[in-house]
Amino acid sequence: MPAPPSYVPAALSGFTDKLSFGERIKNIISYYVQDYVFQKYWGEWDSYYSQVLGRPTTLCEIMGKAEIWLIRTYWDFEFPRPFLPNFEFVGGLHCQPAKSLSEEMERFVQSSDEHGIVIFSLGSLVQNLTDEKNNIIASALSQLPQKVIWRYKGKKLEMLGANTRTYDWIPQNDLLGHPKTKAFITHGGTNGIYEAIYHAIPIVGIPLFADQIDNIILVYKLSSEIEIQLSEIHHAQLIKPLDRAIFWIEFVIRHKGAKHLQVAAYHLTWYQYHCLDVIAFLIGCTVVIAFIVFKCCSYCFRKCGNILQKSKTD
Question: What are the start-end ranges of the H helices in 85-226?
């Protein structure tokens, strides 16, 4: 996938698409470091797939044979950048209109009156926070005028406020689509952000690891620099993300592939892709021509010098 380091931020870099000179230096170094790390990491996968298929192969080769790529973003959650013809955006395909909440949860939500509710979730992977940190969070949430629904699994917290209710699991999409929801405090996971975009709910980001920092920076930058809301961009699509995903899956099955969308770059070596062989050839030709011209000029100067010296002697 084309990724010019001059304006496409590397993964986990925390940069936007507006890079200063120093950031461009860091960005291109990040790309090379990531390539090196991935090559080391993918070596194990190369061995695994070679063993499974019974022939030498690589993970990159297998990925390059993909007929279509369904990308879980859209231009409401992506910096403008070049993509390939067999890349289709289906970001937010899991989002849907909100369903009714359980009676107990609905009563709690309605008790918020005009202040509304705040949804707080750090995802399913964050379950090892200390009791001290959880109590600090609970104390901060207790100071909000809104009622808070917190996805939390652990011991009962001493600092838990009367305005906060914890649940092992929450119907996040349905809560974000509730008319009383005022904000979403999130770790920055892609699914949660898309649900907030879909329902036009403001986001308060607490990124923890992996792509979450990039996601929060992306949302902040896009929402602060464009006049139209991200939710409006998302809902302005002619074809819904889920329908687009279904269409392309059926297209590939029906036509036994989508070879006409695959670029020839998959079949090039790394030096051919970057035209290094062509650049080396042109540099070589330039050096040879310059050398020939230099030798010819030197020969002419020597001849002229000999003729002038002979004339003076005569």
Answer: 103-110, 131-142, 172-176, 190-199, 212-225
